[in-house]
Recover the amino acids of this structure.
């Protein structure tokens, strides 16, 4: 089988370690010492550089490294009208340094007053073109479930939404509008980053979610319906991937548990083209949930880790790929290789150096060529 357009045998989730200059510039901007335009100019310089580094490392699905974000989700969702940042979340697992993400609350009807990612997409595309590369410009945005999962009835305004059905309808609509804007700008690959379906695989987080939202099995189906509605109007030549993650902050995870509790919803109900799945250690369970994978879809298997600096053993990774393939209807043809998550889902980044990061990416491309051949697009 051929791969969906924009998916490669050596692929990636999206984020890379932020250069020191970008982190310093962001601090200066927060203190009012740099204008938004000056910050963007510095980000542009380093995004141009990270594009070249990705290409040199063997990747052909290219992102901006998420260099313009502090959090993988907040910096997108805060631009939706009706959504505000208030306080911080409390987590099942305390993060390194006590850092907790801001809480996103719904204070009014949700709307999409202007495109959010289009300007970033256009700049990234221009840098890929400037490098003379044949590659995919990959856009990563948070899943719409990120607006609901951590909220309760008390943090979704009851005057705006006396019932939740219109809330989910509006949430789907703003994603439809953003995807339409991206498509018109030329984007053909979008990845939805979703922690929540994976969190429903963790017994403690699942129990906490049921206290907020009721039956977790119903919630998983509700999320599949929400995601499907959000992407329902995308043109046939726009590829949609979804990435599931159990947390990735300064090399720390937040949830554990295999995919079995959501496997059938994930593989049979979701209308996406590709799944980017975390599988770098025992926390993610075994490969048996892949038996539900439809014959026309692919999994980008995150059996390498962005959390540790050590290079993986090539033979061990190939063995793991073959183990996973034994559960897929069409074997290795339905699999690709990646790290389990990005290297910097938040601006702090994981505990490794940039040199160690790029060494891991290069090794990934080497393994992919050994398993599938030199052309990583087929």
């Amino acid at each position: 089988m051929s791969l969906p357009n924009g998916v490669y045998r050596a692929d990636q989730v999206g984020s890379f370690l932020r250069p020191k200059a970008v982190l310093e510039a962001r601090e200066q901007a927060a203190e009012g010492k740099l204008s938004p335009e000056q910050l963007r100019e510095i980000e542009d310089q380093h995004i141009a550089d990270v594009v070249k580094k990705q290409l040199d490392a063997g990747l052909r699905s290219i992102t901006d490294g998420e260099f313009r974000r502090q959090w993988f989700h907040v910096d997108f969702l805060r631009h939706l009208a009706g959504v505000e940042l208030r306080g911080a979340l409390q987590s099942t697992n305390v993060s390194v340094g006590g850092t907790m993400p801001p809480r996103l609350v719904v204070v009014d009807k949700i709307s999409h007053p202007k495109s959010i990612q289009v300007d970033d997409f256009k700049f990234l595309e221009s840098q890929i073109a400037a490098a003379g590369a044949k590659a995919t410009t990959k856009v990563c945005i948070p899943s719409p479930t990120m607006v609901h999962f951590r909220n309760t009835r008390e943090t979704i305004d009851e005057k705006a939404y006396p019932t939740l059905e219109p809330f989910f309808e509006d949430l789907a609509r703003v994603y439809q509008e953003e995807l339409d804007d991206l498509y018109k700008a030329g984007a053909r690959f979008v990845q939805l980053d979703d922690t929540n379906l994976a969190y429903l695989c963790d017994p403690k987080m699942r129990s906490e979610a049921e206290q907020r939202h009721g039956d977790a099995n119903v919630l998983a189906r509700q999320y599949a319906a929400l995601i499907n509605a959000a992407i329902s109007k995308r043109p046939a030549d726009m590829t949609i991937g979804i990435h599931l993650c159990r947390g990735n902050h300064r090399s720390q995870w937040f949830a554990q548990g295999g995919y079995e509790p959501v496997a059938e919803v994930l593989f049979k109900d979701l209308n996406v083209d590709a799944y980017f799945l975390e599988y770098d250690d025992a926390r993610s369970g075994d490969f048996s949930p892949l038996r539900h994978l439809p014959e026309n879809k692919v999994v980008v298997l995150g059996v390498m880790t962005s959390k540790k600096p050590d290079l993986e053993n090539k033979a061990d990774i190939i063995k793991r790929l073959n183990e996973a393939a034994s559960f897929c209807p069409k074997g290795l043809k339905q699999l690709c290789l990646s790290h389990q998550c990005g290297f910097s889902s938040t601006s702090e980044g994981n505990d490794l150096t940039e040199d160690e990061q790029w060494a891991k990416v290069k090794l990934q491309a080497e393994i992919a060529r050994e398993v599938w051949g030199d052309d990583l697009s087929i």
